[in-house]
């Protein structure tokens, strides 16, 4: 997967998760969010964190390892 596709899917899922959580607040009983909605939102947050966190970690490690090589590129 390209970085742009990963980031786009994470941002899209985060927006959908926020919309789902706010919609659940408006449904009866008003002001309460069902535990299944909270579980789904937690899974979305875990996905977004893994996409952004792993990408940053991998790019940093590659930059550290290729720092001393001639003709090295930074990601």
Number of helices, counting only DSSP H or I runs of 4 residues or more: 2
By DSSP, the count of extended strands is 0
> What's the domain count?
1
Can you tell me the overall shape?
rod-shaped
Roughly how many Å is the radius of gyration? Answer: 18 Å
Key traits:
mainly alpha, rod-shaped, 75 residues, 2 helices
Produce the secondary structure layout.
Blueprint: H1 3-26, H2 35-65
Helix pairs in contact: 1-2
Provide an overview of this structure:
- The protein is an all-alpha fold and 75 residues long.
- The protein has one domain (3-65).
- 73% of the residues lie in helices and 0% in strands.
- It is built from 2 helices and no strands.
- Helix 1 (3-26) runs antiparallel to helix 2.
- The two termini are 15 Å apart.
- The model has no long low-confidence stretch (mean pLDDT 83).
